[in-house]
């Protein structure tokens, strides 16, 4: 079972609408150079697949760009990340959109230590399915990350508000539902809470056997 | 049908139009936005010292936005206080209506709600911002041409 995964994308959202005091700082999009999966990261991926996800912000796997040149542009992993800007005087700056399978935070969350760095508001972190309602493989995870990256690029220039993050989260959820109906992901029957939140399984649930393979009753 | 207030206002030369009586017998008048401020002051001086309710609605898609004020007079020993209902119609593209908070204090939150739901801008409001929707919401939810974005629902209905 794949553990919950996280993905970080840097974003070109305009912050002009956000900080009302005219604090205009435009962030530059740090397009990380393509990096291939190193052997050590692969091992880290393997052992984290055995972990079960617990509460919020469970650590995920580091994601790296595929050598085939998909659209994933992850942010370089950072060392010595400390939780910043989490205290009360920064209250109201915790931009997030959280639904059952998709949690997007406008911060940098370290995947290993779960330090939540709020001051880096030019990055969005996606935490995918922390409750493991579906069975994830790394390809399906990467598909969702690619969709997320596309959406972030599409929303470039939009004000960085919870409304926008909610729109992005909803689009990712619709993409996950599409993957479910196409049969690429399945419900996890060992999940702690099994309530089929994206529709109960039906006959012909996965559209890829539409060519009449359902046998007739004899 | 026109009532006493209408006759009184005509006598004082204020521009308005009567919209008849509603089912409870409350007289309804229509005032233009640019006259509303002076008319509100005059009504307050006349004796309507209590803004019972302020609401707003969308008349038709592509039409006007209406802001409705129910005024009444609070005084002692009166069984049936006088009431009047004022409707101010504002154009949809640039709906600006003068703010009567300075006359009747109860208009504060109610006009913020009208702003939040329909987008009617009230001039000279000290704190005109959204009161029901989240502050970063885009769009005016109760307008007839508002389409909610396709947000994800928590659970599909079975």
TrEMBL record, chain A:
It is found in: Plastid, Chloroplast thylakoid membrane. Residues 24-46 have a biased composition (Low complexity). Residues 62-74 have a biased composition (Basic and acidic residues). One of its GO terms (cellular component) is chloroplast thylakoid membrane. It catalyses: a plastoquinone + NADPH + (n+1) H(+)(in) = a plastoquinol + NADP(+) + n H(+)(out); a plastoquinone + NADH + (n+1) H(+)(in) = a plastoquinol + NAD(+) + n H(+)(out). Its main location: plastid. Residues 24-78 are annotated as: Disordered. GO terms for molecular function: quinone binding. InterPro entries: NdhM. Keywords: Membrane, NAD, NADP, Plastoquinone, Quinone, Translocase. Belongs to the NDH complex subunit M family. This is NAD(P)H-quinone oxidoreductase subunit M, chloroplastic.
UniProtKB/TrEMBL annotation, chain B:
It comes from the Eukaryota. Keywords: Chloroplast, Membrane, NAD, NADP, Plastid, Plastoquinone, Quinone, Thylakoid, Translocase, Transport. Residues 30-148 form the NADH:ubiquinone oxidoreductase 30kDa subunit domain. Belongs to the complex I 30 kDa subunit family. InterPro entries: NADH_quin_OxRdtase_su_C/D-like (IPR037232), NADH_UbQ_OxRdtase_30kDa_su (IPR001268), NADH_UbQ_OxRdtase_CS (IPR020396). This is NAD(P)H dehydrogenase subunit J. The keyword Cell division does not apply.
């Amino acid at each position: 079972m794949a553990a919950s995964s996280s993905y970080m994308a840097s974003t070109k959202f305009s912050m002009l609408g956000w900080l009302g005091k005219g604090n205009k700082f435009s962030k530059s999009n740090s397009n990380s150079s393509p990096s291939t999966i190193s052997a050590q990261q692969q091992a880290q991926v393997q052992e984290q697949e055995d972990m079960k996800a617990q509460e919020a912000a469970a650590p995920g796997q580091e994601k790296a760009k595929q050598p085939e040149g998909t659209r994933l542009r992850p942010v370089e992993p950072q060392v010595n990340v400390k939780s910043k800007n989490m205290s009360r005087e920064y209250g109201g700056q915790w931009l997030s959109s959280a639904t059952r399978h998709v949690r997007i935070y406008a911060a940098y969350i370290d995947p290993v230590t779960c330090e939540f760095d709020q001051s880096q508001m030019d990055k969005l972190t996606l935490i995918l399915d922390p409750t493991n309602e579906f069975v994830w493989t790394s390809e399906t995870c990467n598909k969702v990350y690619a969709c997320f990256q596309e959406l972030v690029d599409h929303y470039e220039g939009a004000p960085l508000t919870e409304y926008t993050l909610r729109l992005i989260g909803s689009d990712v959820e619709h993409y996950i539902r599409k993957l479910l109906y196409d049969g690429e992901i399945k419900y996890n029957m060992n999940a702690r809470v099994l309530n089929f939140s994206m529709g109960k399984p039906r006959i012909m649930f996965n559209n890829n056997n539409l060519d009449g393979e359902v046998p007739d009753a004899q | 049908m026109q009532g006493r207030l209408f006759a009184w206002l005509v006598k004082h030369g204020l521009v308005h139009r009567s919209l008849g009586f509603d089912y409870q017998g409350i007289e309804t008048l229509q005032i233009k936005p640019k006259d509303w401020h002076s008319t509100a002051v005059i009504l307050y001086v006349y004796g309507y010292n209590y803004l019972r309710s302020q609401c707003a609605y969308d008349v038709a898609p592509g039409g006007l936005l209406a802001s409705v004020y129910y005024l009444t007079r609070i005084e002692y020993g009166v069984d049936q206080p006088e009431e009047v209902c004022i409707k101010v119609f504002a154009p949809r593209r640039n709906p600006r209506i003068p703010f009567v908070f300075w006359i009747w204090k109860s208009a504060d939150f109610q006009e913020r709600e009208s702003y939040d739901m329909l987008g009617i801008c009230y001039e000279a409001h000290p704190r005109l911002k959204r009161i029901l929707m989240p502050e970063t919401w885009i769009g005016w939810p109760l307008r007839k041409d508002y389409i909610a974005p396709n947000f994800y629902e928590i659970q599909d209905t079975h």
